[in-house]
Amino acid sequence: MGSAGLQQATAKMREAGVDTVAIETFAHYYRLLEHGETGMIPESTIEPVDMPALADVEVDDEAAAQALRDTVVIKLNGGLGTSMGMDRAKSLLCVRKGLSFLDVTARQVLHLRKVHDARLPILFMNSFRTSGDTLDALARYTDLACEGLPLEFLQNMEPKLLESDLTPVTWPKEPTQEWCPPGHGDLYTALRGTGLLDRLIAEGFRYVFVSNSDNLGAVPDPRVAGWFAASGAPFAIEAVRRTASDRKGGHFARRRSDGRIVLRETAQTLPEDVKALANLDRHRYMSTNNLWFDLVAMRETLDARSGILGLPLIKNVKNVDPADSSSPKVVQIETAMGAAIEVFEGAQLIEVGRDRFVPVKTTNDLLVLRSDVYDMGEDFTLDQTVEEIPFVDLDGDYYKVVSDFEKRFPDGTPSLRKAASLTVDGDFTFGRGVQVIGEVELTGAGAQRIDADSVLSSGA
User: What is the DSSP secondary-structure string of 347-396?
Assistant: First the structure.
């Protein structure tokens, strides 16, 4: 029967209509949590990993096009962008020429369908918070949904648990805060629970390409699809070289005990191993969260494991109301979808260029994405116009929230094509046509304005 906390949590999920597969998966991780599982991966248990580079791989054009025809695209679209002050789907944010993430993604897929004569379905894994707005925004693309397949499926939800006793938290003043998503590792549970896994196989598809909706570099590229199909691997992830700005992020490694590839996130790193985590010479590669998997291999593995893939647990401690630091501490049970790489024997990694990894997590990223550092062609893919992406650090007091950010760039972003870095410490509003050259740091008290057509340069 399990503990009282588990019984209360699963009863709450059943009452809310959560899928049975999701409840069973939650119960599996709850028991791990009860028994003290932390999901930590000690440095002593892993070693560095190497991999081939996409640039060095030969892929036949027709084989690549056929692989794309056998592929389904899934975009993770459950986030609200709350860290940027948003309260609706982050993918609705305008990013280029009046187009949102959703607009660009839809047009990328429609273009690829035409060029490669591919059905190429796209499915959005939404949360209950993003579903309505997303479907409304995509309604204009009347030919985006593929006949016989939905345009979306919903990720599951689970109760937040009081850190003190692991019982479901109650928060009457905003009951929705009592719930959280189970991390993007829920992808596999949701595909199985909704029946989509079987449906996609029945429709004749073999491969799935998954990526975050806020990464416009994550195009379902036929060359990558061709490499994955030729590899025969059941599962693969695109990786990029880590840079100084990635020192605190997760990385790939190989487990000493069985040789399996693992993805170690920051939350799975012991305090004494943080220095090793940050060592870019030792751990050189990080995940783009662009992953590929074989539908049949996924179904067979889930069947063999009674529907529970068995991803490493991530114990995430937060406040029940993220905006209220005085609200009770809760545990969110999460998993990362990329961690599935350790489940599959023969899983692969492939190094790709940073052009396939253009995530927008902060307004710093948004400024770069909107700038002339990127061009967008008729295929709606991003073309990087500079060799090195400039480093941007905007004062969080004035630019962190999207609405405040927009007010300070009323006439568009400055030119960053010749910039090495832009650091803003203070409240600056930028006029039209401003250029940043070299390393620029702006510091000042009080609201200030950068005049139109100003040229900001190192030492000026």
Answer: -EEEE--GGG--B--SHHHHHHHHSTTEEE-TT--EEE-SSSPPEEEE-H
Say whether both 339 and 431 belong to one domain.
Answer: no
For the question of residue 90 being annotated catalytic, the response is no
Say whether both 212 and 93 belong to one domain: yes
What's the structural domain count of the chain? Answer: 2
Q: Which domain holds residue 430?
A: 363-457
CA distance 432 to 411: 5
Q: Are residues 51 and 105 in the same domain?
A: yes
- Of the residues 331, 356, 381, the one at which a domain ends: 356
pLDDT-derived band of residue 80, with 50, 70 and 90 as boundaries? Answer: confident
55 & 150 share domain: yes
Catalytic residue among 114, 173, 248, 361: 361
Nearest-angstrom CA–CA distance, 190 and 456 = 50
Q: Which helix (DSSP H) or strand (DSSP E) does residue 196 occupy?
A: helix 196-202
Give the model confidence (pLDDT) of 382-434 as tens digits: 999 999 999 999 999 999 999 999 999 999 999 999 999 999 999 999 999 99
Q: Is 310 left (phi over 0), alpha (psi -120 to 50) or beta?
A: left
Residue 120: CATH number of its domain: 3.90.550.10
The model's pTM is 0.94
Question: How many residues can be counted in the chain?
Answer: 460
| Amino acid occupying residue 198 | D
Domain C-terminal end among 356, 382, 399: 356
From the CA atom positions of the chain, what is the Rg in Å? 23
Neighbours of 236 (CB within 10 A): 26
Structure tokens, 214: 């806020």
Structure tokens at 229: 């199909």
Kindly report the CA angle at 159 between 175 and 132, in degrees rounded to 5?
Answer: 60
Helix (H) or strand (E) holding 441: strand 435-450
